[in-house]
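Input for the complex:
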Amino acid sequence: MVDQTLDTPATLKSRAAEWAALPVRGVMRLLDWPMRLAQRIVGLGGMPYVFLLPNLIFFGTFVITPLIINFAFSLTGGPELFIEDRPFVGGEQYGFLFDCENALNVSTCREDRFWRGIYNTGTFVFFQVSLMILFSLITALVLNMKIRARGFFRSVFFFPVLLSPVVVALIWKWILLRDGLLNAFLTSIGLEKILFFVDPTWAMFWAVFVSIWAHMGFYTLIILAGLQAIPQDLYEAAQMDGTPRMRVFWRITLPLLWPNLLVVLVLSLIKGVQTFDEVYVLTGGGPGTATQFIVQYIYNTGFSNQVQNFGLAAAASMVLGTVLLVLTVIQLVVARRKGGI
Amino acid sequence: MASVVRFLTRRRGGSGWHWTDMAAYAYLGLGVLLMFGPVAWLVLSSFKTQAALLEFPPTFLPLSQVEVTVEGYDEPLPLFSVTDEDGTVRELAQIRRVGIIAQMVDPADPETRIEVPIAQREPVREFALATENYTKPLEQFDFLRYLRNSVIVTTVATAITLIINSMAAYGLSIYEFKGRTVALGFVISTLMIPITVILVPTYLVVTELGMVNSLWGVILPGAATPTGVFLLRQYMLTIPRELIEAARMDKASEWQIYWRIVMPLSLPALAVLAIFSVMWRWNEFLWPLVVLARSEVYTLQVGLNAFQGELQVQWHFVLAMTVVTLLPVVVVFAFLQRFITTGIANTGMK
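Predicted:
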């Protein structure tokens, strides 16, 4: 006989859920009366607006208003934060940013840090996006094979996505330090120690590497979903015809995966252009300005430098916003076309 | 033995091995090393003493020197293994070191002092976890406060996010009304405006509202997320309308329909959003870095960054705190992995 009074795991679980639901129920009860009142005032037809209101207030306050102010900000000068104290300067901030004798030579620009940021971001995004898509594709293809413990291997590649950028950067910084694990390995096979954060090329290499390490799993997952959506009978037909594996890949897998790869490309471009956290903690933008990206330029100019230049930071973020807008429009077009196929 | 090998190498479908299978497992093996290795090294290192962390080359496991209590000495003495000229090895405790000569004593015979050149002695070490790396920051630093701030930000922000976004999703999915397309377009267009683009003016808004150096300044700006509205709306569209009509017939108010019928039915989508929100908030860095300038209000991520940026980085504490910061995410992942991966695969967002 089973003792009925004993808590089985299932009842324990439901009891825990009940306890957790208590405060929620309390809040909902509390809101019940004002919402009833609102319904009596605006009627059923007005209720959708009532439900939308809190969200729209938040969007309006923290997204739309800032967006408008940002433009106004970029047209003003001086160190004051409050916009009513700031003198109007017109396009001066933009003029300052774009004042270059030769746009290809950073040192001829008046605001060379801005251009360094742009070129660094460009270099970073080029290598990060191309290599990340390559490795995500390989990983997804491997994970899509008939392998053992697929769930385990998928988690292995995915879990860094959930780690915070600060944690990711610290994990790798600890390995790459002068007396870190990697240098211990290098000396053990008879090589010299390398000061990874002193050499600009190495610093950029590790910025790209760590960023791929952290985000690859996300894109692998999207590509994997695309691979699994390819009808299996296509492969069976190819197998019956004795088609070589490489040709199956070029003729079936890649064409059918193409829309997914485009989504991944645009998504990773949008994220890549905004890279800040990991690299900021890993290299601090150094050595010098070798790994200083555009977002860090905005942060430094607006918040971290001795003289806080909000107008210049706002102008730079308008430039960044324009780039992102173009990328997002491309994304929407790509997504629509993907839906159309 | 042969059958074990056959069991391990057998394939689904009974077909033979192809070179690509070998390559695939080699790739996966390398992947495990590269993905898990750094985290494992962090955890191992976080249990090493400050002295052990300075060692080069580093030892693999956290080791510390064995100490023995010797009669006649108040303090426990460090133990060394001493190799004599004739090759015999003895274990001696060191009393003090004078230049290149160490004064040592045999624990079994505490009366006689022995002088040994330091080149002949090797410390005797054993596996030991330096748990003080974890306990000390809790007492000495503001670490506990950062932890508390992060927990507050994560829970309050997630609660607000769930309520206001599910309300908006309800409004956009259950009703047909004028301006629905406009409102939906409005919500989706905010998806294109990441915080990096509006950093300065959002800071101004937060300052005007008096929320600089307050946790509210971190919580509120990100509370309404277009991702959340979109995710919940797609789910709520699948709820049958008859259910809602029936409830209206029974004189249920709209608010009651929302929280007693639609919310319970949307639990899977709410769970996905809750997991995402917890993850976003726990890991958030740039915005708290801008808003929080005083160390009392730092969140874990900002606090950790401040510690690692100091001139003399106390790595033994930083590593342990990194492990603590990483722990909740690992726990969430271990239990809710399927939720997270299907959520991302379905929405294409993170």
